[in-house]
Amino acid sequence: MKRREFLKLSTTIAGAAMTVYMPANWTPARAAAKWKVGFSQCTTLEPWRVQFNKDIQAEAKNQPDVDLVITDGQDKTEKQVADCENLIVQQVNVLLISPKESAGLTGVVEKAIDAKIPVIVLDRNVDTKRITQFIGGDNVAIGRAAGEYAVKLLGGPGKAAGNVVEIWGGMGTQPAHDRHDGFHAFTDKEPGIKNLLNNQSGDWKQDKAYNIMTTALRNNEKIDLVYGHNDPMAYGAYLAAKDAGRDKDIKFILGIDGLPDEGVTWVSKGQLTATFLYATPGAEGLRQAVKLLKGEKLQPVITLPTMLITKDNAPDILKKNGLL
């Protein structure tokens, strides 16, 4: 079996240490009671989010004392805020939330804390330290690993050269900024690398990335590398290049998510050069909520591991998931 590359991830978010924040006078629910845990998902329009829900639902089957309530923000900040307000009215024992936008969900998170409901934030953080716990990947580390790999593909440190198209995720989300900053920590050291676009947001969507790439192809005769902030956007860019008859000219298209039936499969087929396995925090989020309700102490941050996937180890992952 091929050796798998794992990233060593930190336990800080955006460079700042975090502490556990508990609502004033909060105590766990009585053990004899059935706990109600609310989960506010920002959208189910993205495949990774669908897997996210499956993971938390699967864990809920292992937690007989938990009544899990899942809401879908339908990719709208206003809808997700309303969902959270409804969960507060229901007096859930713990609120799990994966925000569509950091700033847009901060107010309702603080409202939950004020209502003595602990809040565990998953994947995308909010703009307040008044949360009980954060669980997610280290997106700066992911971006840095992507940047280092891109430099290697474009000729190596000190020699790398090429035209790069970067397709952002949501501009209002911290992971997009972290993946951008980490990537540029490596690529900006290389004078031979030229960035062709200025902060083009695909909002994590394949169709939007397709349109961005179509325009980039029309305006640029030479594109060497595409860096997509998730797999659907990277694949959308690939499809645009293929439709334009230029997919063979682009050395590298990177994605992040690593779903076996999407990103890993696309890497195995040679459509994407690499992806990063970015596990959803759904199951861990529910496990931590139960731990809290049992009166156990939580870590302020749980950083989930990630893994670089290339054509070398993609077949192993597909076999493990029964897809090869």
From TrEMBL:
Keyword Acetylation attributed: no
Domain Periplasmic binding protein span(s) in chain numbering: 37-297
Main location: other
Coiled-coil intervals, chain numbering: none
CDD domains in UniProt: PBP1_sensor_kinase-like
Keywords: Signal
One Pfam family hit: Peripla_BP_4
Subcellular location: Cell envelope
Family stated for the protein in its record: Belongs to the bacterial solute-binding protein 2 family.
Protein name per Swiss-Prot or TrEMBL: Substrate-binding domain-containing protein
Organism: Bradyrhizobium jicamae
